[in-house]
Specification:
Blueprint: E1 8-9, E2 18-25, H1 29-40, E3 45-48, H2 56-59, E4 65-66, H3 72-76, H4 83-93, H5 100-108, H6 110-119, E5 128-129, E6 142-143, E7 162-163, H7 172-185, E8 189-191, E9 194-202, E10 205-213, E11 216-228, H8 237-243, E12 251-252, H9 261-267, E13 273-274, E14 279-283, H10 287-290, E15 294-296, H11 310-320, E16 326-330, H12 331-335, E17 349-351, H13 354-361, H14 367-379, E18 401-404, E19 423-427, E20 430-431, E21 438-440, E22 446-452, H15 469-486
Parallel strand pairs: 1-9, 2-3, 2-11, 3-8, 5-6, 11-22, 12-19
Antiparallel strand pairs: 4-7, 6-7, 9-10, 10-11, 13-20, 14-19, 15-16, 16-18, 17-18, 21-22
Helix pairs in contact: 1-7, 1-15, 4-5
């Protein structure tokens, strides 16, 4: 039980500090879901959390849950949805290479999953926020997440599926408050300030965890199995360099403890990983300004329809376009933005002409002028043949002009995510698991007694990402893992 992450033989443990049916490591949304389902199945459950309190990165998130298929909130807002329609959108938006087996289950079970949240005390206001944004500043319970923009509106019937707990702005804290209250009511034991260090094995099975608590070595035994819900690896620079270098140098969307520890502990036992290079990126560009103007790269060129889900324009910029990136808007467009949608942003540069603005932004002479000229000619007739922005937002841009710099972040009372680049992200890849959370080894066989969910595992995502699919995926497959381990899928003989 030193600093090594190598698995520890049970015979090397002098005594176990506790013994339960199910051990959950990490108490964010996935861990809470796994603990709740395992307890509901009659198992005794202990959850270990390395921080001084549970919640993790989930509690710091926006709180959106990507749910659909015909939820009560969708119906109340006048939208008709079904699982096939939801699947068609997510397969495209989360792709290429989304995990279609997991995604199919997620879509088919989405309405039931919505009702599960309501059973845990999570409430959703039956109203729609109908404007482009990263996060509604209202308590509306439904929002668009790119379903109504090209090319997705041609692949599936546009229906909003961003379900939001009843809170203004960021609601991850509220979601976790309700889930953790349910966890405590279910009789789950919680040990905080406890850092899992290695898996304990016996006769080829995972039977517990060796950990450190206040500097002391402790150990916990699990009769039926261990569920790893320890988060991703964005906070480990070495793992980023090896698997997802695109995030190096950018900000991190996490609670600071997503260091890949669970992934590494399982890998030391021979566990396989999947999609380790897949990431989500967020660029602090203001959607309300972008749709009224344009997003351009360092060469003054557009590269995407600006009304698309913010995570998609962010990914397109950071992964594929030269920076810095600029949001260019004219005075008419800027003044038409509702105050609530400004997020404290102010233009960094203003100019009477595009020639002046090019000089201010160090864009090659004539490049931005050419981009705006093409845009204006098409916008005058309500068209955007290059990128298909919705006609709702199209009109010619006229002087004076302004440029917003995403590197300055948002003045919303939260720290700027960009940390100098305007971009921040987190990882999507992790342990290779079955649909019931069983961790597979490098030969494709399930490791007895070991399960994983949330960002410690590879879920429904391919190369794409939509808000709410981390909390949604983590809780959905966390629940399945909790049921599987409680049923004895990893039980000792």
């Amino acid at each position: 039980m030193s600093g090594s992450i190598a698995p520890v033989p049970a015979s090397a443990i002098d005594r176990f500090d506790a013994e339960v049916d199910v051990l959950v490591v990490g108490l964010g949304c996935a861990g809470a879901a796994a603990a709740l389902e395992a307890a509901a199945a009659g198992a005794s459950v202990l959850a270990l959390e390395r921080a001084s309190g549970p919640g993790g990165s989930s509690a710091m998130s926006g709180g959106e849950l990507y749910l659909g298929g015909g939820t009560a909130v969708q119906k109340a807002c006048g939208f008709d949805d079904d699982a096939d329609n939801m699947f068609a959108y997510l397969r495209a938006a989360l792709g290429p290479h989304a995990d279609e087996e997991k995604l199919r289950l997620y879509c088919d079970g989405s309405v039931d999953h919505f009702e599960w949240f309501r059973a845990q005390g999570v409430t959703f206001q039956e109203s729609l926020f109908d404007a482009p944004t990263w996060m509604p500043p209202t308590t509306d319970g439904l929002m668009w997440l790119g379903e109504n923009v090209w090319p997705y509106n041609e692949l599936a019937r546009p229906v909003p599926r961003g379900h939001r707990p009843t809170a203004e702005g960021f609601a991850g804290w509220l979601l976790m408050d309700r889930l953790l209250a349910a966890v405590r009511d279910a009789g789950v034991s919680i040990e905080t300030d406890t850092l899992a260090a290695a898996l304990v094995v016996e006769d080829g099975r995972v039977v517990g965890v060796a950990a450190r608590r206040y500097g002391a070595q402790v150990a916990y035994r699990a009769r039926r199995g261990v569920v790893l819900t320890t988060g991703g690896f964005v906070d480990d620079e070495e793992m980023l360099a090896a698997h997802a270098p695109v995030l190096l140098g950018h900000g991190k969307v996490s609670d600071g403890l997503d260091d890949g520890s669970g992934i590494r502990m399982a890998a030391a036992l021979g566990a396989a990983t999947r999609r380790m290079g897949s990431v989500e990126v967020a660029l602090t560009a203001l959607p309300a300004a972008m749709v009224r103007g344009m997003l351009v790269n360092a060469l003054g060129q557009r590269f995407i329809n600006e009304d698309v889900y913010p995570g998609l324009f962010s990914s397109a910029a950071v992964k594929h376009q030269p920076g810095p990136w600029w949001v260019v808007v004219d005075e008419t467009g800027w003044e038409s933005i509702p105050k609530r949608d400004l997020w404290g942003v102010r233009p960094r540069y203003a100019a009477e002409t595009l020639v002046e603005l090019e000089s201010e932004l160090s864009i090659p002479e004539g490049a931005l002028q050419a981009t705006v000229d093409v845009y204006n000619r098409h916008a005058a007739v309500g068209a955007d043949p290059l990128f298909h922005k919705n006609a709702r937002w199209l009109r010619p841009l006229e002087p004076p002009f302004a440029a917003l710099d995403p590197r300055l972040g948002f003045a919303t009372g939260r720290d700027s995510a960009g940390e100098g680049t305007g971009a921040a992200g987190f990882t999507l890849g992790g342990l290779h698991t079955t649909v019931d959370g069983a961790v597979l080894d490098v030969s494709g066989a399930a490791i007895p007694g070991l399960f994983a969910a949330g960002r410690a595992s590879a879920g429904i995502h391919g190369e794409g990402y939509i808000s709410g699919t981390s909390l949604g995926d983590g809780t959905f497959f966390g629940r399945r893992a909790g049921r599987a381990v409680a049923a004895g899928a990893g039980r000792q003989p």
